[in-house]
């Protein structure tokens, strides 16, 4: 994961073109080393937490992972000749849920319910009252 090239399609055209993107048939790609290191550290921490709780770390699977925006940081850095430049940060919150892979629960069969409008429900009630 740390040394793998990532295909970037959702970004704008400000990314430079790389010849190494030819493997995936794209012209724009990048190596997200910093993000991959953060995620690897988070997975390592989650594995240590699972080991502390007594779970089998060999059977862990990632059930859910989600990255949400955090409040942006806005600081300032002081430069020469009285200038001030912004020092911006764009942090994030990462949700990560690991479960043991052996414990898979099948979804219970659900009876299909028909969704009726209020007019259709009223008609059913009237018919039931007439028949009774």
TrEMBL record:
Protein name: 60S ribosomal protein L17
One Gene Ontology MF term: structural constituent of ribosome
Gene transcribed to yield this protein: RPL17
GO cellular component: cytosolic large ribosomal subunit
SUPFAM superfamilies with a match to the protein in the record: Ribosomal protein L22
Keywords associated with the record: Ribonucleoprotein, Ribosomal protein
Name of one Pfam family that matches: Ribosomal_L22
Biological source species: Aspergillus chevalieri
Record-linked Gene3D superfamilies: Ribosomal protein L22/L17
Family, as annotated: Belongs to the universal ribosomal protein uL22 family.
Transmembrane segments: none
BP GO annotations: cytoplasmic translation
UniProt KW Metal-binding keyword: no
InterPro entries: Ribosomal_uL22, Ribosomal_uL22_CS, Ribosomal_uL22_euk/arc, Ribosomal_uL22_sf
UniProt keyword Zinc present: no
